[in-house]
Amino acid sequence: MNSVDFLLTNKYIIYDIQTEIKRLGRPIPDLIISKTDVGKSRIYSRNFNSSVYDRFKWLCGCPKRNKLFCFICVVMGGNQSAWTQEGVCWERKT
Ligand SMILES: [Zn+2]
Q: What's the superkingdom here (predicted)?
């Protein structure tokens, strides 16, 4: 019920169950996001690291979309942005 997928596809019934969703908290799945970039002198491998959930308390993830979202905005209907609509691909240099 608190998954990003549910929240994005059931916008009109969310109001009634907002309290329950807030009680359940944000979904913090371990996403498999990695990307390889070729730099000038070496090849960079960027991987998702679930420690970002600790650093950003509003962050939540969707394993189906493999993207990150702003939990508060997804639940409350904040600004229409990548963080509330299509999700953001987190990248981190390793
Ligand atoms: Zn937000």
A: Eukaryota
The answer to whether residue 85 is domain-embedded is no
Residue 53 within a domain: yes
Q: Please give the distance, rounded to the nearest whole angstrom, from the Cα atom of residue 47 to the centre of ligand 1.
A: 23
Gap from CA of 4 to ligand 1 centroid (Å): 13
Question: Would residue 90 count as lying in a domain?
Answer: no
Quick one: average pLDDT of 32-54?
Answer: 83
Q: Examine residue 27 and state whether it is found in any structural domain, yes or no.
A: yes
Strand partners, 45: 36
Q: How far is the CA of 67 from the centre of ligand 1 (A)?
A: 15
Render pLDDT for 9-24 as a digit per residue (tens, 0 to 9).
877 666 678 888 888 9
Instruction: List, as ranges, residues with CB under 5 A of the ion ligand 1.
Output: 70, 72-73, 78
Confidence of residue 93 (pLDDT cuts 50, 70, 90): very low
Structurally, the chain folds into a number of domains equal to: 1
> What predicted TM-score, i.e. pTM, was given to this entire model?
0.75
